[in-house]
Amino acid sequence: MRSFSALLFAVLLTASRSTLSLVSIPLTKLERTGSYLQGAPHADRARASFLKSRTTTPTSNLAYVQYTTSVGVGSPATYYNLVVDTGSSITFVGTGKKYVRTSTSIPTGQDVNVTYGSGFFSGVEYYDTVTLAADFVITNQSIGDALQYSDFEGVDGIIGVGPVALTQGTLSPDINALIPTIMDNALNQDLIKKQILGVSFAPATAYNDTNGVITYGGIDHALYIGKITHVPVTETSPASAYWGINVTDSTYGTHTIIPQSTAGIVDTGTTQVLLADDFFQVYLDAIPGAYTDDNTGLIVIPSSSVAGMQPLNFKIGGHEFSMDTAAQLIPLDQNTAWGGQDGVQYGIVGYLGTDSGEGFDFVIGQKFMEKYYAVFDGHDNRVGFAYTEHTFSTYSP
Ligand SMILES: *[C@@H]1O[C@H](CO)[C@@H](O)[C@H](O)[C@H]1NC(C)=O
Ligand SMILES: *[C@@H]1O[C@H](CO)[C@@H](O)[C@H](O)[C@H]1NC(C)=O
Hints:
This protein is mainly β.
């Protein structure tokens, strides 16, 4: 019943956008039919709880919405559909399409093992040639060949674009090794000038919608409006190990959701926007009749309350980034996909599973990034956001 469209092999490298050190790649958003998304909120929470403490093992059965990109491995390259994940840093294949070894595939003698908030893989490590785009070919890149795994239906693995420190502890026997990431090697091999990743997501309008763009090595000015607001990666642990930032203030209408500078993470691998439980409770209480549905794990908003909904605002780097009503709601025609019931209005914002004060008090996930361009800047150790044509939308039930 899963039916994803063909992988997108064609890489759009238009003359105006491409330079040697800036490569934009289109992304495909996978959406599932049936009840494949059921449980995604719980999976998001498990992921958040896991990211807070990298030793906790989650148990969610994954069914989720993710962004993927096509990545070639080997020579000649076999192309894999990999989840773009800023919350992890290992790149691996084999959970769907099996790893096809070629003359460039060199076993390293290491086992590799990563547990995610949802799912895990274990297998063996190779060095191999990785093709991210035409003329954008990384050699000697660590690649995991997943031999055992769970919760990767519909995708072939992950391209991990998180900080390199997250790779430590994943190899065995070389348990302390840091494994250069795709971004590290792209920089070291002069494929990019700066370790910057630009991410453009957008609300999907079709089952399998190639509506996103990822830029290795810089930002794509055509994909955002106005200026980028940058904030330093937070010093607060454990968010600081990720693409973590401080939100200095968050409001919903006249209600204060986040009262003071608070650390959390920006994560392409989380679908929802998650708030620490006490923050979430303020949001929930501010929407008349809203409650969390145990079946789906999603917030349910009475239709009588929709018209009165307010923007959910996050102050980041001195600028306000709002999720308007549409951004806070799951379109009714996606209810089945999220495991919900017809005619019920579900929401995007969810609870983290722990109270605030733990140095990891929100996750700004994919649904936020469908509204704002995001920049993961390892050169200056900062995260940036900018408005896009999708920032302001209208809700039409
Ligand atoms: C390949 O990369 C590893 C680190 O990931 C490094 O130890 C090794 O020297 C590299 N080999 C070549 C041929 O560059
Ligand atoms: C982030 O907020 C914390 C307090 O929550 C503060 O100590 C820190 O200086 C702030 N800025 C950065 C960049 O971490």
